[in-house]
Structure formats: C-alpha cells, structure tokens
C-alpha cells in the first residue's frame, strides 16, 4: 500500500485527488494539509511514502521551501510536485529542493498515478516535454560546473549515472548492465561521492545538465 499525504491550498483539489487516489487499490491518502508548515507537521506524524506537494501556496510555507525542509527531516519520503507552471525554471528548482519529480495539474489522472508509482519505486519522474526542455536548456553547458568531477567517473559509473537519469531502478540497471543490484548500489555510491551529491534527484538534474539523456544506452 502506497501511503500518500496531500499538500495543496485548495480544498476542492485535495478532495478530488483523495477520491481519485483512494479508488486505486494499492494507494491510500493518509492525510491532508493546506500549506507547507502544516504539511511538514502532518508528514512527521504520518510518515507517508510520498507527499504530493503543491508548488504555489500563498499562505504559510510554499511548496519548494516545504520540500527542502521535509527532505532534511524525512529523507526516505518521496516528494512529487504538483504545479500549474509548465516552466523549466520551476522544474529544476523543485529537483534542487529534493523533489523526485513534477506533474502538471493539467495532466491526465493516469499520468499522476504512474508518476506516483514510479517515484515510490525509487525513480525520478518528469513528463516528456519537461525532460526535453531541461535537456535543451542545459545541453550546451557540458563544460560548466562539475566537468572536472565528471572526468573522475569510470566508464561503468557513467553508464549507471545515465541509466539513473533515464528513470531505471537499481534492479533494472543491474539487468541491463548484467551486474548485481549490490554492484549497482556500489557504483551509485561511488559516483555520488565523486560528484559530491547525496540524492537521486541531484544525480538526475546533473545528468540533464550534462546532456546524458541524449546518449543511446
């Protein structure tokens, strides 16, 4: 059962999401909050598997600030941003704050359900058009921040990084590269140390900057 906390300042939106998600057999909405501070309190109480976080909440703590704070206190809880802003700046800031992905509020219900499942499985999620825009934005910056650190990665670590950015789970990466999950985790740990990063979303944003999603692995 995937336990979900809803954080959105619109009661009607929360109600609609609650009805929709509770209708999915393996999902359960365990709490609601109308702004970031309340969302943090509820998350600490309920320890949900995932928080659906509204990006723009005019009262109290906003979604980005709440996401950053929540990831410090509950690093194992995934956060999926819900936003009306189809803009790469907001998407990148959400990833920097620790979110595992973003879904537009205008997206079909099935896309949201699949995004929740993907994020809870340990993957990052960005809808296809957002991924393309982020690639276009950062693909020209290959020689900027982190280039020297990137050269420290082994060929296998670069392969693992690229597959992480493409949304593969550790198990799927192991199957694709014909190595054990334990070896995948070791490579992931090594490349995080070399790149001085702590979370999977950080790796995804870094790979997007480097243009790694354009590689045909």
TrEMBL record:
Q: Tell me, which GO biological process terms does this entry list? A: phosphorelay signal transduction system; regulation of DNA-templated transcription
Q: Which residues form the HTH luxR-type domain?
A: 146-211
* Entry keyword set: DNA-binding, Phosphoprotein, Transcription, Transcription regulation
Protein's cellular compartments: Cytoplasm
Q: Could you tell me which SUPFAM superfamilies the record lists for this protein?
A: C-terminal effector domain of the bipartite response regulators (SSF46894), CheY-like (SSF52172)
- The Response regulatory domain is annotated at 3-120
Write down which residues bear the modification named 4-aspartylphosphate. Answer: 54
Q: Which GO terms describe its molecular function?
A: DNA binding
Its main subcellular localisation, reduced to a broad class, is cytoplasm
Q: Does the keyword Transcription apply?
A: yes
Q: Name one GO cellular component term.
A: cytoplasm
Using the record, list the residue span of the signal peptide; answer none if the entry has no such feature.
none
Q: Kindly indicate whether the keyword Transcription regulation belongs to this entry.
A: yes
Q: What is this protein called?
A: DNA-binding response regulator
The source organism is: Virgibacillus halodenitrificans
């Amino acid at each position: 059962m995937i336990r979900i906390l809803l954080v959105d300042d619109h009661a009607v939106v929360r109600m609609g999401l609650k009805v929709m998600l509770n209708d999915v057999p393996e999902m359960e909405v365990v709490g609601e909050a109308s702004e970031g501070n309340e969302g943090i309190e509820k998350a600490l109480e309920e320890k949900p598997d995932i928080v659906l976080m509204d990006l723009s909440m005019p009262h109290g703590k906003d979604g980005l600030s709440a996401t950053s704070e929540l990831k410090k206190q509950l690093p194992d809880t995934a956060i999926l941003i819900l936003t009306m802003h189809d803009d790469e700046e907001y998407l990148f800031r959400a990833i920097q704050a620790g979110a595992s992905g973003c879904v537009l509020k205008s997206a079909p219900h099935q896309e949201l359900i699949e995004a929740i499942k993907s994020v809870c499985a340990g993957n990052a999620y960005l809808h296809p058009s957002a991924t393309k825009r982020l690639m276009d934005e950062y693909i020209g910056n290959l020689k900027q921040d982190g280039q020297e650190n990137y050269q420290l990665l082994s060929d296998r670590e670069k392969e693992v990084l690229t597959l992480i950015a493409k949304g593969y789970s550790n198990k799927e990466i192991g199957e694709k590269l014909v190595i054990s999950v334990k070896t995948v985790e070791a490579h992931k740990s090594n490349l995080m140390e070399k790149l001085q990063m702590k979370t999977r979303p950080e790796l995804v944003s870094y790979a997007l900057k480097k243009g790694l999603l354009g590689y045909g692995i």
